[in-house]
Amino acid sequence: MFTAGWNAASDLEQRFLAAMADDGRDDVPRAAVASSLGKDSRSLSVPRSRLIDKGIIEPSPRRGHVRFTLPGFGDHVRALDRG
Fold first, then answer.
1. Are 27 and 59 in contact (CB under 8 A)?
2. How far apart are CA 68 and CA 28, in angstroms?
């Protein structure tokens, strides 16, 4: 399941997921993802929406935060050889 989700993500979406995973929190602030990627938070709204549509992440109950839908997905991403 983890591999299928990762492979379904575009390059930018994979970088978004990697930034979330590297943050290490369950609920990751969108601002932290943007900072990690060197982007403005608003510029990440499209990849964020696509990842939500794919069911890989979801908005957290905490405003401005996202989280993985599957427990362990962040661990899987951190374990990948991202080159």
1. no
2. 9
Summarize pLDDT for 62-83 with one digit per residue, the tens: 999 999 999 999 999 999 876 5
- Using only C-alpha atoms, the chain has a radius of gyration, in whole angstroms, of 11
Which domains does the chain possess? 2-79 (1.10.10.10)
Please calculate the CA angle 34-69-48 and round it to the nearest 5 degrees. 30
What pLDDT band is residue 22 in, cutting at 50, 70 and 90?
very high
Residue 83's alpha-carbon distances to 12, 14, 47, 58, 79, in angstroms, are 15, 13, 21, 27, 11
CA–CA separation, 77 and 46 (whole Å): 21
Q: What letter would DSSP give residue 71?
A: T
